[in-house]
Q: What sequence folds into this?
């Protein structure tokens, strides 16, 4: 235990002497750290800029005075939406809205207009601060317009004490958690005991936390913004979310703490894997041994050059730089392979846990790499209580079951369907609907969501997250999802895998993709084997927290959507309802002729729904030749993303008619 770090963290006890409002959090944040650097950002030329806490405080006051004037027609004490990307302006406007006496409704900056308006309507917001130029259902105020207003130095703050987080951005009823100042103070106090386990997550020295996770998300808001500004640390903002700008900001900003969702860490792991494949046998072997050595799987002698600090520095220079000291993955399942690769590069990666409704409630803090690689979310933070109850509802001690959480962080009011209501929790425990287990040392592990668990005909429970990890590194697979579904014609729910492929995949890669996936599937235990495999024609649908929307995919599969291509070539026949029959017939004839010429088959043997490979015995090389003939003879350009997806005469007919805008009947 580091006593200096422990004393540093105990400064949060000052909150106990206050009324525990958001204003108290703000005052303590600003008063204790005036000379510290609050934010780092990069201008258009890529030059690093710094903002001190003293300047941050001044910016909040002047912006509040300007915003108050802009919102003069908005009723006092009402909700004002904040829809901005992470930048040096987000913290300023967050506090400015509160200082003006309004409750901020935090909205995803990338949310569509209709969904944004839905959230505004249901939270009864009266205005929105944003950079969007769209027309909203309430008055909108752009950042630059507000900043260009004159400052009113006689402005008197009138603080609000609530923040609204959105757990949904759909067009239906939205669930929005309302957090009070007491809830947020409890969240800060939850960090009290961290120094008992590690000093790396928070210490008195210089910490630069990467502000990549959107602050409208509970993970980004708490684990990056709230905790680290309260303790006077620095937020580093990338100029954009492009890979180039992210890596530039991490290295140039000398980021020490990097928190993100599993999808980000998976992408880093995939980059490492692909880089290793291109290094050649010798360098690839050194990298593998370095990863094995840093995760304590082999000795220093066995690792050879892989144990060298210089070698690790060289590889880190190509990835996230050499300043990273603490990393957290939150918001979803982190695969063991990804955890091993990231930790093996010398970046300590830990698992965390939280939800919109309960805040951040635990994080694995053990400095022992073997413990990190177990995938634990750690033990409940200070003031947080966990309980596991059996799914069958029977009383008694349970090692595996639904995770229940009780703490002062948990919100007590929420908007649901536009109505504000109080939340009543049995014995104060919130039902997370996550399946968890606890080991003999009190460490918790998340297995799955209850609604995502696949229940097989024999009663076996299968957790899809544990299956997905086996397929994430297959060549050309961008993303994948495993779920239980009952496609048409099936009597029982079965395990399905849906893969999203990258734009570099060609027709000749399809066969290898199938082979790779089926080879992996054969190694899985019988109860975890995938029974149906599909290629998603479009990017997989993602939720606000960067998880695949399993419910949406399941619905599409069970309804027989054309978005999903069965690996076995069995798919829904193409419908030409609403198309001009003469134009359809003309295009079918042209494409059938091209099929015939390339395949050396009589045209009468080529049915409109016959698959190029499965039914007509065409191979990948002849497929490419056929595509070239179609493009040349018909004057079209077939997108590479549709190679291997369009497999029949009718597939091509519909696609080309749609591209030419000639398929639909005239109204």
A:
């Amino acid at each position: 235990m580091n006593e200096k770090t422990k004393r540093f963290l105990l400064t949060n006890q000052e909150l106990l002497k206050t009324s525990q409002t958001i204003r108290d959090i703000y005052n303590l944040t600003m008063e204790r750290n005036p000379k510290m650097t609050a934010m780092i950002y990069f201008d258009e030329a890529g030059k690093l800029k710094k903002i001190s806490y003293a300047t941050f405080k001044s910016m909040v006051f002047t912006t509040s005075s300007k915003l108050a004037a802009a919102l003069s027609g908005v009723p006092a004490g009402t909700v004002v939406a904040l829809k901005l990307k992470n930048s040096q302006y987000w913290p300023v406007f967050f506090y400015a809205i509160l200082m003006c006496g309004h409750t901020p409704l935090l909205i995803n900056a990338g949310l569509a207009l209709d969904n944004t308006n839905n959230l505004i309507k249901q939270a009864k917001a009266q205005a929105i601060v944003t950079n969007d130029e769209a027309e909203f259902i309430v008055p909108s105020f752009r950042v630059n317009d507000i900043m260009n207003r004159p400052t009113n130095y006689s402005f008197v703050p009138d603080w609000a004490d609530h923040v609204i987080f959105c757990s949904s951005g759909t067009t239906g009823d939205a669930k929005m958690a309302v957090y009070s100042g007491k809830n947020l103070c409890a969240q800060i106090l939850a960090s009290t005991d961290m120094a008992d386990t590690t000093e790396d997550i928070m210490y008195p020295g210089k910490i630069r936390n990467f502000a990549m996770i959107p602050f409208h998300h509970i993970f980004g808001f708490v684990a990056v913004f709230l905790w680290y500004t309260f303790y006077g640390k620095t937020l580093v903002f990338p100029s954009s979310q492009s890979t180039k700008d992210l890596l530039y900001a991490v290295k140039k900003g000398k980021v020490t703490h990097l928190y993100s969702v599993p999808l980000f860490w998976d992408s880093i792991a995939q980059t490492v894997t692909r880089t290793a494949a291109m290094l050649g046998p010798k360098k690839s072997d050194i990298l593998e041994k370095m990863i094995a050595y840093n995760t304590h799987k082999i000795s220093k002698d066995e690792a050879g050059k892989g144990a060298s600090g210089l070698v690790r520095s060289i590889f880190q220079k190509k990835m996230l730089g050499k300043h990273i000291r603490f990393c957290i993955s939150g918001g979803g399942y982190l695969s063991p392979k990804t955890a091993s690769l990231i930790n093996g590069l010398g970046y300590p990666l830990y698992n965390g846990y939280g939800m919109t409704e309960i805040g951040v409630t635990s994080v694995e803090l053990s400095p022992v790499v073997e413990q990190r690689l177990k995938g634990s979310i750690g033990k409940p933070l200070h003031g947080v209580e966990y309980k596991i109850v059996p799914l069958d509802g029977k009383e008694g001690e349970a090692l595996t079951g639904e995770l229940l959480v009780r703490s002062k962080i948990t919100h007590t009011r929420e908007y649901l369907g536009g109505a504000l209501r109080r939340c009543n929790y049995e014995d104060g425990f919130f039902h997370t609907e996550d399946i968890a287990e606890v080991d003999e040392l009190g460490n918790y592990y998340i297995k799955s969501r209850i609604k995502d668990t696949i229940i097989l005909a024999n009663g076996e429970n299968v957790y899809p997250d544990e299956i997905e990890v086996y397929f994430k590194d297959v060549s050309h697979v961008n993303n994948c999802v495993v779920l239980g579904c009952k496609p048409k014609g099936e009597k029982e729910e079965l395990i399905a895998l849906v893969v999203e492929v990258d734009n570099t995949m060609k027709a000749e890669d399809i066969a290898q993709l199938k082979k790779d996936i089926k080879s992996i599937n054969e190694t899985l235990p019988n109860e975890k084997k995938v029974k149906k495999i599909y290629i998603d024609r479009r990017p997989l649908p993602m939720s606000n927290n960067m998880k695949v929307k399993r419910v949406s995919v399941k619905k599409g599969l069970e309804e027989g959507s054309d978005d999903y291509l069965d690996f076995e070539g069995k798919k829904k026949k193409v419908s030409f309802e609403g198309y001009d029959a003469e134009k359809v017939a003309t295009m079918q004839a042209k494409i059938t002729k091209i099929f015939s010429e390339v395949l050396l088959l009589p045209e009468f043997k080529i049915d409109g729904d016959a698959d190029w490979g499965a039914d007509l015995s065409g191979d990948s090389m002849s497929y490419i030749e056929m595509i070239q003939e179609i493009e040349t003879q018909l004057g079209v350009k077939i997108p590479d993303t549709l190679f291997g997806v369009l497999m029949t005469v009718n597939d091509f007919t519909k696609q080309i008619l749609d591209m030419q805008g000639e398929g639909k009947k005239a109204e």
The domain at 581-660 is CATH 1.10.1200.10 (Non-ribosomal Peptide Synthetase Peptidyl Carrier Protein; Chain A). The longest strand covers residues 430-438.
